Amino acid sequence: MPMKYKPKKTFKQTTHQLADNHTWKAPPGYKIFVIDRGAASFNIPADWFMKQIEPLELLDKEPPDDNARIMVTFWRLPPNIDWTGLPLSQRLAARADRTGEHRSAKTSGRHRTRMA
């Protein structure tokens, strides 16, 4: 059976002016990148650009001249589910124990996760 053609999703980059009393601040030389009306957001260098939408890919330069990129996979979870009982750190540690894939992670800055 032949595979069905699945067209690539297109995206429309938009720039919105924030309200005067907003609290989002980007350091000089950075811009705020927002996904799904604020479900996820982070700062990226001002000259970076979005290459594709799924998975979301942000690059510093066009390939093959790029030196850095960020790829983000974003899932919209069903509403009205209480996720507080899901111990994410314990589940990740258990998976690492099962697979033997223990890696150290380095993070810097402020990180937050918000589940609706």
Structure commentary:
The protein is α+β, with helices and mostly antiparallel strands and 116 residues long. It is 10% helix and 21% strand. It has a domain at 30-99. The protein has one helix and five strands; from the N terminus they run βββββα. The strands form two sheets. A three-stranded antiparallel β-sheet has the order 3-4-5, with no helix packed on it.
Brief write-up:
The chain is of the alpha+beta class. It is built from one helix and five strands. The strands form two sheets. Strands 3-4-5 form a three-stranded antiparallel beta sheet, with no helix packed on it. It has a two-stranded antiparallel ribbon with strand order 1-2.
Protein topology:
Layout: E1 30-35, E2 40-45, E3 49-52, E4 56-59, E5 69-72, H1 88-99
Estimate the mean pLDDT confidence: 79
Instruction: Give a count of the beta strands, DSSP E runs of length 2 or more.
Output: 5
Overall form: extended
Termini Cα gap:
40 Å
Secondary structure category: alpha+beta
Strand order in the sheet with the most strands: 3-4-5
Quaternary structure of the protein? single chain
Low-confidence stretches: 111-116
Estimate the strand proportion: 15-25%
